[in-house]
Amino acid sequence: MDYALERFTAEVTAAIAATGRVPLDVIELTTPKANIPADLALPMFKAAKALGVSPPQLAAELAASIQLPATGLVGSVEATGPFLNFSLNPERLAQHVLATIQAQGDAYGAQTLGADQTVVVDYSAPNIAKRMHVGHIRSTIIGQALVNIYRALGYRVIGDNHLGDWGKQFGVVLAAIEREGKPTTEGEVALADLEAQYARYAAAAKDDPALDEHARHWSLRLEQGDADARALWQWCVDLTMTAAQRNYDRLSVKIDHAYGESFYEPMLADVIAQAQAAGVAFRDEGGAVVVENLQKLPTFLLQRSDGGTLYMTRDVATIVFRLREFAPRALIYVVGEPQTLHLRQLFALVEAMGYGAGVTLTHVAFGTIFDAKGMPLSTRRGNMVYLEALLDDAVARALAVVEQKSPELPEAEKLAVAEAVGVGAVVYNDLYQDPKRNITLDWERMLATEGNSATYLQYSHARCVSILRRANEDGGGGVGDALTLLTHPAETRLLKHLARLPEALREAAARHAPFVIADWCYATAREFGVFFEQCPVLRAETPALRGARLRLVAATASALRRGLALLGIRAPERM
Ligand code: ARG
Fold first, then answer.
1. Sign of the CA dihedral running 144, 145, 149, 152
2. Motif 'HIGH' region at which residues (predicted)?
């Protein structure tokens, strides 16, 4: 796709190269400082040094001799001290940007950067027979945003939900269900009941070796593929995934695969043998398989002395499988900060086993969630928040805001808007800043109609749509195409900003940082606010200007909707 800013840069580069004075390898364009009224700058220092002239002298000489394409996006060139500054032509910028956004619609920003490259994103990964807690909530939201961003760049993206559906503790889960019966509740409540059953069984087993033994027996039956054990386990998986699916739907989350840890069981023996053959793991006197002294990392196990395997063993098998199955360029793990050491050990081990070539392994770590009082959420502290309850709470609060701001909306629409606003608030609160940082559940800020919140962005979008709706109703004429009239500084600023989405997408991907898109959305809404304040739309001086401004409003609505969709946030038409 031929985007405006990319084309502008290419035109500037070509024009400089055509002078024959500056070798291509010293053409390093930069963004001018905020107080310089230009869009791209070429610092002259390197070229001037090579040519033995002073930078300002070279800048002046080039400004006088450079040829700009007559119908291109470059409007003017000017020497300012040691810099050669280039500015966009506002009229052609308007035509280019608005035509592109209109043509691309919901795909605005799409690129081919990632063509023929595969990225696997490991995210969400809840544990079976348990509710999703903070770690899974953040992983789900951040992971899906990254998936959307890489897809927009043309990568083949494979999302994999690495379910915690295996391990010794499943013996306890199954034994507890056998003892107390299947809970008759559903959704997150049923999962909470299973957690309670589990806790009761584990507590009782502490004083009763027979119970402990019985749980071990269930775990063995499960591993050996016993039909009853398998069926009960499958029931747990289905119950958990049905509950998770409700949350995923609300969050616009769609994960391609859910192989889960259990899938790797048949591959574990081979992985353990491979690690030993590669000389990175060894069997100790007790019979355990140990990895020691790997890149100065703490010792860890691949197999316990009783023959049991571990979370780590399954993660190694997962990488081997993913490399073989998908041939990815990158494997991205969206997992909480507490698992940093686990992932460092994992990555170091597979590299030592010879799997590192041609693939980058990345841990996108994220911080925790604090409650409104500034306390980290924890089960022990009793302030734990689970996903379904969190979304319900957010939607109830959002409904109160909608009732107050838009009492005239029909009841059903109020509920739909509240759902979009509430869920959007939770999602945006997670994505607006660096994932490494902790987030706070500060509802006032999350649902504020001003400031950096999803609600503010959704309002800005709805405002654009409402202007377009009124334009259709008031008989003054709809969108027009006299786009060269859009030269007011506030219009040009908004247009330049809209033009930045493709670049923001590349930066977000390179930094694994959805907040770059969030920043773009926020700045778009602010630029729109300034434009709307300074430039009358429905009452523009002429019908032609009105039509052109309506096109700008339509493009802003469309681009903002696109930006929010990349983050997994819905944009209602009315609020
Ligand atoms: N199920 C794990 C947990 O709840 C997260 C899994 C993350 N992904 C991975 N490949 N280890 O802690």
1. positive
2. 126-136
CA distances from 3 to 119, 425, 511 (A): 24, 31, 21
Question: Cα of 140 to ligand 1 centre, how many Å?
Answer: 11
What DSSP assignment string belongs to 21-44?
A: SS-GGG---BPPPTTSS-SEEEE-
> How far, in Å, is the centroid of ligand 1 from the Cα of 427?
20
Tokens of 299: 């010792």
Q: Which residues contact 254 (CB under 8 A, 6 or more apart)?
A: 144, 159, 248
Tokens of 9: 């840069």
Category of 27 on φ-ψ map: left (φ > 0), alpha (ψ -120 to 50) or beta: beta
* Per-residue pLDDT reduced to its tens digit, 317-340: 999 999 999 999 999 999 999 999
- Any idea which fold 4-88 has? Gyrase A; domain 2 (3.30.1360)
Please name the residue whose Cα sits nearest to atom 9 of ligand 1: 162
Atom of ligand 1 nearest to the CA of 315: 10
Ligand 1 site, residue 420, Cβ cutoff 6 A: no
> Does the CB atom of residue 315 touch ligand 1 within 6 A?
yes
Q: In what helix (H) or strand (E) does residue 237 lie, and over which residues does it extend?
A: helix 227-250
Ligand 1 pocket residue status of 261, Cβ below 6 Å:
no
Atom of ligand 1 nearest to the CA of 339: 12
Does the CB atom of residue 160 touch ligand 1 within 6 A? Answer: no
Residues 6+ apart with CB under 8 A from 471: 477, 478, 479, 537, 538, 546, 550
Domain ranges of the chain: 4-88, 162-252
Question: Residues with Cβ < 8 Å from 443, sequence gap 6 or more?
Answer: 372, 394, 397, 425
- CA–CA separation, 361 vs 359, rounded Å? 6
Confidence of residue 435 (pLDDT cuts 50, 70, 90): very high
Ligand 1 centre to CA of 433 (Å) is: 23
125 lines ligand 1 (CB under 6 A): yes
The half-sphere exposure of 449 on its side-chain side, counting CA atoms within 13 A, is 13
CA atoms within 13 A on the CB side of 547: 13
Phi, psi of 360 (to 5 degrees): -100, 135
Is the pLDDT confidence value at 341 over 90? yes
* Bridging pattern class, strands 360-366 and 330-336: parallel
336: part of which helix (H) or strand (E)?
A: strand 330-336
Q: Whose CA is nearest to atom 1 of ligand 1?
A: 164
Question: Given its phi and psi angles, is residue 53 left (phi above 0), alpha (psi -120 to 50 degrees) or beta?
Answer: beta
Structure tokens, 493: 């600023």
Q: Is 127 in the pocket of ligand 1 (CB under 6 A)?
A: yes
Give tens-digit pLDDT for 446-501: 999 999 999 999 999 999 999 999 999 998 888 989 999 999 999 999 999 999 99
Nearest CA to ligand 1 atom 11: 315
